[in-house]
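Propose amino acids for all 198 sites.
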């Protein structure tokens, strides 16, 4: 089983809020992420309890329906307004936009979202941690190795392992540069959050 993460792992640190350019968009992002996360919490609950059958299938179907609606909305929004940056929607809003982009099924569209985010990383208008996660996810979707070790899969023994990663010897160094913990710490997080792999 391949696990594309995070579903729930990172919440941006709260800092004194600056006035944002588009509070209405920030509010809509928050509303959509609340629905997104509720669906994933339900699915993770099933994973941790090793439950199977119709309840799991229904929860996955519900999650895919939510993702499809959010994808269509986010695509239309970015065509009209560009990528939702920190100045536009605040730190939480920018993180919420990234989270919705993480759950896009289309590999091509996820690449488009990453390309929209990338120019804003150097100006701190997009979180470097968010950028690391979506970069890895896009790379794996395109058949490449990940860069930051954010995506995990089953190790075949009930545990988790990191999917193929560039230059593993320097992985922790790359993670540290973006404010991520060590890969060992991250694997403990995954095991605690998701339980045994299936």
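Proposal:
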């Amino acid at each position: 089983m391949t696990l594309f993460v995070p579903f729930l792992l990172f919440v941006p640190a709260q800092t004194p809020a600056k006035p944002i350019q588009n509070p209405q968009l920030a509010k809509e992002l928050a509303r959509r992420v609340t629905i997104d996360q509720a669906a994933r919490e339900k699915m993770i609950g099933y994973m941790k309890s090793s439950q199977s059958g119709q309840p799991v299938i229904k929860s996955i179907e519900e999650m895919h329906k939510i993702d499809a609606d959010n994808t269509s909305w986010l695509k239309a929004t970015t065509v009209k307004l560009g990528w939702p940056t920190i100045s536009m929607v605040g730190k939480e809003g920018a993180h919420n936009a990234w989270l919705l982009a993480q759950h896009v099924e289309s590999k091509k569209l996820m690449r488009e979202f990453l390309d929209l985010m990338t120019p804003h990383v150097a100006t701190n208008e997009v979180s470097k941690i968010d950028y690391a996660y979506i970069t890895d996810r896009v790379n794996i979707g395109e058949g490449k190795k990940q860069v930051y070790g954010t995506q995990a899969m089953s190790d075949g023994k009930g545990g988790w392992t990191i999917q193929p990663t560039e230059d593993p010897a320097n992985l922790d160094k790359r993670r540290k540069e973006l404010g991520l913990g060590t890969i060992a710490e991250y694997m403990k997080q995954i095991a605690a959050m998701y339980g045994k792999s299936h």
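The chain is about 60% helix and 5% strand. The radius of gyration is 17 Å.
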